[in-house]
Each structure stands twice: as structure tokens, then as C-alpha cells.
């Protein structure tokens, strides 16, 4: 009511359809338009491919899933301003899956799928790729100071110190510090920090005390 422009989407039944339109303005004046016919042929494929982006099975990966009721002709993907990639789609395939390593940081992934009827679907999604934990091991007096940081939180710290191993689990902190008391002579240490996405960073070193 009171609009000077109206848009309405009407489902089109199979077969020949006649559309009659009458418009009444705010003053009650009616305008009838010439009937128009529309033919819907059910044999014509108008369904676009479906594209999903989900978490991949590998650490730091995502998976694209493309499906269609007809054969898929081509699939392309592009990370932000990188080159467009065109993976090979098996001939006649109505589904296609591909795992990708998520780019570090925040990147835009664009996927375009086209079926054999030339129906096209495009999906663009911002993907935040995980970064490996940052790990530093410093000598401070009679101690080694282990410092692990990660934007997505550290989940686990493992170390081998002079042949003695230990695992600290369920850390769930963006920054975690741990101290090891040095022994007289040469000290060896291997430290592995793991974040909640399963990404790891390892440090190996030795020092004298």
C-alpha cells in the first residue's frame, strides 16, 4: 500500500501459463494489462550447483563440496588476489570434493561451479587460517623460560629435558609460560607447543649452566 514500485516472485507451474495483472492506484483507478503467456519446460535444467565449505579432515584444512542433479562441468577457486585454480572434475560427476590448506591469516575464498546446462553458482567466504604457535626458550639465571603464544590458544606443551619427558595438557590459554630448573653442566631440551587446531611448533636447543 502506498508504494510506487511493487515486485513479486511467482512460482511457475509446469506447462503453459497465462498471467493476468490488474493494478489499482491510491485513487481507486484500475489498470488492466494485456495477459502474457509463459511456458515452463520441466526438461530444461535450471538448478544451480550447490557449494558447501566445511572444515577439512587434515590439520589447518578446509573442504569444498560441490553437488548438482546434473553433471558438473567445471569448478574454479581463488584465494583473494591469487591465481584462479581449476581442479580436474571427473567427467559425468554430479559431486566433487577437494581439501585445501587454509591460507594463514584472513583470506577470501571464491568458488565458482558450472554444470553441463551452464547453470552457474558462486560462493565467496572469508576464511581465517590458523597460524602455528610462537615458541621461545630463554635462559634466565638457573632456569629455562619456555614461552608459548597462539591467537587460537595453546592446548598442550611437551618437553624432553635432559632425557626426562613431560606433557602438560588442557592449557587453553593464548599465552603460557613454563620454567625448567637447569642442572650443572650441559642441558638439552626439546619443546613442542600445540594449539587447539592441532598445529605445532618445536624448539631444540642446549645450554651450559
How would you characterize the overall build of this protein?
With 209 residues, this protein is mainly β. The chain has strands at residues 15-19, 22-24, 30-32, 36-40, 50-55, 61-67, 72-79, 95-101, 105-115, 120-129, 134-140, 143-161, 164-168, 173-181, 186-195, 200-208. A hairpin with a 5-residue loop joins strand 2 and strand 3 (30-32). The radius of gyration is 30 Å and the shape is elongated. The protein starts with 14 loop residues before the first strand and ends with a strand. The mean pLDDT is 89.
Fold topology:
Blueprint: E1 15-19, E2 22-24, E3 30-32, E4 36-40, E5 50-55, E6 61-67, E7 72-79, E8 95-101, E9 105-115, E10 120-129, E11 134-140, E12 143-161, E13 164-168, E14 173-181, E15 186-195, E16 200-208
Antiparallel strand pairs: 1-4, 2-3, 5-6, 6-8, 7-9, 9-10, 11-12, 12-13, 12-14, 12-15, 15-16
The class by helix and strand makeup works out as mainly beta
Whole-Å distance between the termini? Answer: 86 Å
Report the helical percentage. Answer: under 10%
Number of helices: 0
Radius of gyration, in angstroms, nearest whole number: 30 Å
Report mean pLDDT, rounded to a whole number.
Answer: 89
Brief sketch in words of this structure:
This protein has 209 residues and is mostly beta strands. It is built from no helices and 16 strands. The N and C termini lie far apart (86 Å).
List keywords for this structure.
elongated, 16 strands, mainly beta, six-stranded antiparallel β-sheet
